[in-house]
Here is the input.
Amino acid sequence: MGMSTEFKIAIFASGSGTNAEEIMNHFREHARASVVLLLSNNAEAFALKRAEKFGVATKVFTRQLYKESEVVLEWLREKEVTHVVLAGFLWLVPAYLTNAFPDHIINIHPSLLPKFGGKGMYGMKVHEAVKTEGEKTTGITIHLVNEHYDEGRIIFQASCEVSASDSPETIASKVHALEYAHFPQVIDRWITGKA
Here is the structure.
């Protein structure tokens, strides 16, 4: 089969890209799938530097470009992308992308959906809400993406305990550990038809 892989992944990231790095690392030597593109809505995102380290092509886009044009879709098509992964990407995915990749866009959310999901619920805001509500458990949800925030079909959840003494930061580090442990493997199973 040579160098060409069956499945080509594009990652969308807005921030530091720690999950993106875990994913790029996982697929670096993969027999059937590779990360071919990392896209960001933030020109300063450290995720872009991480992608360069892995030799992954990068693109940066503005809100207007993302919402109102097919340029982003053209970039994905140029790279023959088959699957899209949102790794710390905060914008709603527009219909032209969900239509182009039905059931082929996946996201990770730092809570056990449907709890603490929806618009404005991301990052520390989620962990602060978990603490405020006195939740005993939280975790991660990996789900398919549709045109609504956090409403796509759930394909995987993992949980961790929350103790009364946990701060939002402690909760965040527990949730990050789950993300790194599970997200690349779940993506792998999803792409190769085992999820």
